[in-house]
Amino acid sequence: MYTFIVNPHSRSGRGRKIWDQINAVLIERKIVYEVFFTKYQKHATRYVRELTGDGGFHKIIVLGGDGTVNEVVNGIIDYSKVILGYIPSGSSNDFARGYGLPTEPLAALENILAAEHIVLMDVGVLHYQKKTRSFVVSTGLGFDAAICHQAVVSRLKVVLNKFRLGKLTYVGIAMNRLFLDEPVTMSLSVDGGDPVVFPGTYFIAVMNHCYEGGGFKFCPDAKTDDGLLDVIVVSKLTKKKVLFLLPTAFNGHHVRFRGVDIYRGADIRIHSEKALPVHTDGEPVFLQRDISATVAEKQLRVIVAK
Asked: What domain of life is recorded for the organism (predicted)?
């Protein structure tokens, strides 16, 4: 049996309409399923924790954005007993982009029902103030997280979603935040190595997938099953150069420029001279100065494209 976790408010309300399409097909084909609609933040986490607490095997299908996927994964008790499918209906959909999943709802459903390709995926774990939160796409400190924080409450996101241009929300907010926020000194330690200090840092992002923020290919070589996390540091650049670099990040060409440093490891530790916004898969975490990221012991099975 399939369990569908639906965020009806994703993409400014289109989530419910997409579910109506999916539901009609499921009924027509007499497919056995149950559905749960999220009503508030972290509702999916609570439900999935209860669902998977029985110790049984579950096929969980998420209909929503990256944030809904994040909530679901944070509720799973045992990754080894879950197969995850995804029907993207968010603004950025970087999780779907990373796996090349269909973005058209019925095509995504067909891909899930066929389930011809199931892969193992690493799950990242953010650590802060004796708390943890899992992530599947990325976590970050600084400029990229500030964009995610603002996107949550942005009217621009609502408007652009109506024209199916939701991913441009992040571009628009990025332009705004670039001139509002000042870079700070940060340090990075990888796998217990000595901290590397980066003056004038805009952000440090820890990536499980290669995409973040609606299609920015920040870590082009990131792999979701290698037991490692990729890290991008953007520092020591003028704001004009950052503005120039951002468009090149859509195809991963930004890594050729000075001021962009890439690392890879299983234990990532970041310190900032001042408290800054943090996110997990675009979901805000309150301001922090110190965070670390590791990889969960167990991998999660994910239905990917044919």
From this structure: Bacteria
